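Lecture notes, unit on protein representations.

Consider one protein chain, 84 amino acids long.
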Amino acid sequence: MSMDNKAKIGEYLSRFFPVQDLKDDDDIFQLGFVSSMFAIQLVSFVEHEFGLTIDNDDLELDNFRSVGALDAFVTRKQSAAVAS
């Protein structure tokens, strides 16, 4: 059984955050869950889990702010990879 992107992201984040049910639009930076080290770890997770390359232009806070934002970012990157 495969998990959709949002479920994979939520499961990954739940390993590190003291919140049981992180909502799709919860701002993980505003909630204080993300340190600079975890931000790097999060980028690495996205690259490895979804087989993507994160470019410098992709390192916008809005791409990583929430489960929903990460899901939308991954979907855009996957769509761009298929189109090229």
